[in-house]
Amino acid sequence: MPSRLKSLIQISDLTLKQVNGLFSLAEARRIKKQETKMQKISKNPIALIFFESSTRTRMSFEMASKKMGLDTILLDGKNGSSLEKGETLEDTVLNISAMDPACLVIRSNESLDMVQMQKKISQPIINAGWGSRGHPTQALLDIYTLSQKRKRFDKEKLLIVGDIRHSRVASSHFELAKILNYKVGICGPQEFLPTQVQSHVKVFKKLSEGLEWCTSVMALRVQWERHKTKYSLSDYREEFGIHKNHAKKMTKDQWILHPGPVNKNVELDEEVFWDKKSLILEQVKNGVIIRRALLRAVLEGFL
Ligand code: CP
């Protein structure tokens, strides 16, 4: 019997074997070794509960579900739901769970405790972005994207640039790096860096030093809505933006990533977005593949 993944709330829910299992499922799907079964793997729909805005994650879970013949139900923000009447996030999730979906894909701020929530409901929860605590499917799809370029991670040095303090993507990479044994560096204005940095994370004051060290660089969206910063867009771009000149100097196997949404000409130049080394749209494409693999691992089990 293939073992099922119970839920995915934090990267630390996964073992190395399970990460490799997910990547194998994804790879089998990508190169079409494994055809989609015609029968539905679940009669019950997937509940997509997005308390916060999303384009890539929401649409890719929806795309993944539809490609597998799974129905979806969607709660998309506050509008039109009883959140407008003051119902809490927790009660909203409890009530949707009572309708018995196959699993719940949730994007939320940290006021919902997904770990405690999982103890109150029987269906699996998949974290689709949880405050700054984690975005496990994003980190998985980032590394899956790099794995198509090189097979080993132990030499990978991923530099994450920008708003690390508020980044759930960075949080998940700090955890995934421990499982897959790649190195992580961070770089950004002091006020964007975490107050405490884990010992396995390298800190670079200057972007040029980080770029010399890394084998791949990931720019993050500056979450201006969360900052009272002294940085202006142009200061940030000048010091921490990835410019076309940086891209030119990078070797042909140094890759550029961004989880999106991209503030073009802030975190990276428009030309860098389109550069041959940019994997940004590959990441989006692989987002569907990884989420498809994850839904299968949760609903049916690993290969
Ligand atoms: N990368 C990411 O989570 O994008 P969305 O916010 O559009 O889902």
Helix content: 25-40%
What's the alpha carbon Rg, rounded to whole Å? 19 Å
Question: In whole angstroms, how far apart are the ends?
Answer: 9 Å
How would a crystallographer describe the biggest sheet? 5 strands, parallel
In words, what does this structure look like?
The structure is a single chain. Helices cover 38% and strands 14% of the residues. With 303 residues, the chain is α/β, with parallel strands linked by helices. The strands form 2 sheets. It has a 5-stranded parallel beta sheet with strand order 7-6-5-8-9. It starts with 15 loop residues before the first helix and ends with a helix. The structure holds phosphoric acid mono(formamide)ester. Phosphoric acid mono(formamide)ester (CP) binds at residues 54-57, 129, 135, 138, 259-261. Phosphoric acid mono(formamide)ester binds at residues 54-57, 129, 135, 138, 259-261.
